[in-house]
Design goal:
Number of domains: 3
Strand order of the largest sheet: 6-5-7-8
Oligomer: single chain
CATH class of the largest domain: Alpha Beta
Number of strands: 8
Shape: elongated
Structural class: alpha+beta
Number of helices: 8
CATH architecture of the largest domain: 3-Layer(aba) Sandwich
Largest sheet: 4 strands, mixed
Mean pLDDT: 84
Helix content: 25-40%
CATH topology of the largest domain: Glutaredoxin
Length: 212
């Protein structure tokens, strides 16, 4: 039984019906909402009254976690900025070790496989240490017909490494790309952000000597 009062005509009565939500006022036939009984509040125990330890974001981070956290905070923990965050970490750290990708996944609350998909899809990212200077040799059609293969072969001989490797002194990393976007200047290479076009194998010694 529930005590109900009609807000329309003011009539009160004891409701004993079976409907859960609305009852009809016997005086004016107005629909009256049936308020569910509030469950009794549980009694507080001694444990409930004890101060609880809370985890805060003020916990000091160190090492890789701190490096990642600084960059993520710069982008306000925005998951849609994952590529930009990885680019910034790559620029700051030089490469993306597994521990760093795991920390990005954890702090952004993004699945680790998603972070790896981005890091392995774009050539700008490296999952291994790189040399101080990154050499990219264009292997696009235009560059290849103008001697790109000879440039790559000569570069391998001068550096003593294969593509994807670093020189023993960590001075250079050698990579190939499908296109550098300046086909009319082929063959083309880049070293860091500097472009060199219309190359001949004799030009490489002078170009490499500029980078210590």
């Amino acid at each position: 039984m529930v005590k109900l009062s009609c807000h329309h005509c003011g009539h009160s009565w004891d409701y004993q019906g079976k409907t859960k939500y609305y009852a009809t006022c016997p005086n004016c036939r107005y629909k009256v909402r049936i308020q569910p009984e509030k469950p009794p509040k549980p009694e507080l125990t001694k444990r409930d009254l004890e101060p609880r330890k809370t985890l805060t974001k003020d916990k000091k981070l160190i090492g890789i976690a701190a490096i990642v956290n600084r960059v993520i905070e710069r982008y306000q923990h925005d998951k849609s900025m994952l590529i930009q965050i990885l680019l910034q970490l790559q620029n700051d750290f030089g490469w993306l070790p597994r521990e760093m990708l795991t920390e990005v996944s954890k702090q952004l609350e993004i699945p680790l496989n998603r972070v790896y998909q981005i890091a392995t899809f774009y050539k700008a990212f490296s999952l291994a240490p790189r040399g101080r200077h990154l050499i990219r040799v264009c292997m696009g059609t235009s560059c290849k017909v103008r001697g790109g293969d000879r440039i790559l072969d000569q570069m391998r001989k001068k550096l003593g490494i294969e593509k994807g490797e670093n020189t023993p002194d960590s001075r250079f990393t050698l990579e190939t790309v499908n296109c550098l976007g300046c086909c009319a200047l082929g063959p083309v290479i880049t070293i860091d952000d500097e472009y060199y076009g219309n190359l001949k194998t004799a030009d490489l010694e002078k170009i490499l000597s500029k980078y210590s």
